[in-house]
């Protein structure tokens, strides 16, 4: 007679060999996510950038584009906890952050923490909840802690909020105020997949759904986040990011007199700050120890589009923030690549 000997849980060092190269480890995690998610490469890259930079992401796209599945898969691959909140008009802040509950058997109040206490939080259709709920969530995003009954409870690290908006419905919605939407690091527009990608999605749906495996630990992610903070940023790259933001505030200064009537308010200082931080993470993801102009240019639409307040003229003429940014990119000169600081030059 044979007996099955139960397997003892392995230490984290054995389950996840220490990876010294962040690019290899993150690409391995990205490959595992793509076993479940077809296409949406830009969205996946932006999510990893947000994780490394410590920011949050606002997604805008029609239903059915795998936004929920993406966040759930990301949590499984990185070993974090996943929570989802479906925002509705009757939601109250206590449903989000938690509350104090009286226990008759003990005669005492106990704190019950809400669903925001997880590593990956999906705030589905955030614009369907009233302003109080939106403010409660955005306060947690900014402070990464909640105070209930005089006690402060920090959220787990990492803490990534992925909020979604549906662009095709406006009834029963409460649009996010500009001051609150500015706290998102990026706003990513999620488009339909290509025909070949959609065919692959349909084909996969006919078989067994792939189960993603855990490829990274939270400790690995913390190390990579610290590594992203050590990525070199040349002064000219910083100046380029600041100039892009300034061009959205004072278009006339850059010869964009025809763009000025479409912009009510330009990007806030959070724009270039978030842009440089995100570019650092993207450079690490691409295997470089310094930020290139291409990193800033690639992320600029996602970091700046939701920070531009369009005028009534832009709305009536169907001019979008991306249209404004396209003109800004064409008007602002990029710093020459050969002047950027390389790691060996810094040494």
From TrEMBL:
ATPase AAA-3 domain ranges (all copies): 56-186
Annotated InterPro entries: ATPase_AAA-3, CbbQ/NirQ/NorQ/GpvN, ChlI/MoxR_AAA_lid, P-loop_NTPase
Biased composition, class Basic and acidic residues, residue ranges: 12-21
Region (Disordered): 1-21
Residue stretches of biased makeup (Low complexity): 1-11
Tree of life domain: Bacteria
Gene3D superfamilies with a match to the protein in the record: Magnesium chelatase subunit I, C-Terminal domain, P-loop containing nucleotide triphosphate hydrolases
Name of the protein in question: AAA family ATPase
Organism: Conexibacter stalactiti
